[in-house]
Write a structure and sequence with these properties.
The protein is mainly beta. Helix content is 7%, strand content 35%.
Length: 472
Amino acid sequence: MNKFIYYFAFLILLITTYSCVEDDDFEVPDTSQVIVDAPEGLIDIQAIVNQYNTTFAGRPQVPIKFEEGAGFIEGFVISSDEGGNFFKELIIQDKSENPTIGLNIKIDVSPLFTRFEFGRRVYIKLEGLSLGEASGVYALGVGNDLDAIPTSIVDRFILRDEETLPIIPKEIALSQVNQNQLNQWVRVINVQFQDSELNKTFASELGDTFDGNRLLRTCENFFSVPLIYQTSTFADFKALRIPTGGGSVDAIVSKDFTGTNFVLNSNSPENFNFDSATRCMFDVVSCESASAPGSNILLRENFSTGINNRATTPAGWVNYIENGTIFWQNYLDPFTNSRATRANTFGSGNENSVAWLITPRINFESQTGEVLEFFTSTEFVDDARLEILFSNNWDGTAAGVPRADWLPIAGARIAGKNDPANRFYSSGNVSLDCVTGLGAIAFKYVGSELVGGRTSNTNGTFELDDVTISSN
């Protein structure tokens, strides 16, 4: 009896002692999944995406559900929610280096980086999951709405391999960001934030409701379309200022909430490699602003005399094909019921289309206060490009176009992919008062069907009308 009382008292003492220990002194339990060997029945990610894309034969697509025995896919984790820029989503790609495809996996767990860290090889069991598109990217989830995999059954679907590999970013230019890089880890080289973004934070500005959208531009071409670098307003680094120099950034290629625009998402500010404090500068024509056109008309062209679908060749103008087969051609615009000219590479199959339309030469020494104005509109323009250039050493011939020096004209408003289609926009009054010599203005179209053929993002249409150059 005495021994029983002794042991009972000792047990009470132990319970009392340990019940007084502070919570922070307890060791955090290991909630990691058991590391497993590669399961049987592995399927390439590309194979299930192909299955999804071919199931509906051109009909509106809905998510497909994987049945019993569907197997597993293998991938490497490239997202991390440690910095708060991702939430309840795991992004994987098919290879640690030179990936070809990736997936967004919806998971009702936060945080995820403690279990599925950057570079971790994982296996996803397909049975019971659905594959479809969420905000324009391929995604795995539950049911027709691609709901997140519930916390209680995550271990049933996602298995951790013992291996974590270095993720080697795919090095690309900003202009190469397209559908083929979605859900992949890339290094976008030779970029800097647009001048208008400088001194802003990543996502703490007035108007940053859910995300901070900052425009990145390439140093390769003055007219290249900027790309959105996106940061969640819940990210830990949202109040940090964006880097002001230039270089490269490692990021995941994705799309915005609407699934319309490509965006870049990084895991942390450390993914920036802006090792140059010097920003790239473009040699451009940039005269002092003009408040109004001049009273003296030096050139006026509304393309009203051309024949539909024939090359645009007003008197003195040069229509020059630098690459490909397309040229500027006349058309009747059904929205304005007037004639104009346009360029597009849709249906051409051209890997690279470059088409020039150049004004007659004007002597800029004979008057002062020259002002340029023109109107542009677009159709499905996406990432096709229109450049407005000036040269004062072009000889006036088609053969002389590639030999001349052409400078971008800054300050002109050009219709773009974020503008409503088929609506003409004025360039504004663009001063040419600072240029000299015998000069001409070129409208240079750049497009391609290298990727996607007729569904390419770079084969859209630019339309041009009412080009006027005036002076005092």
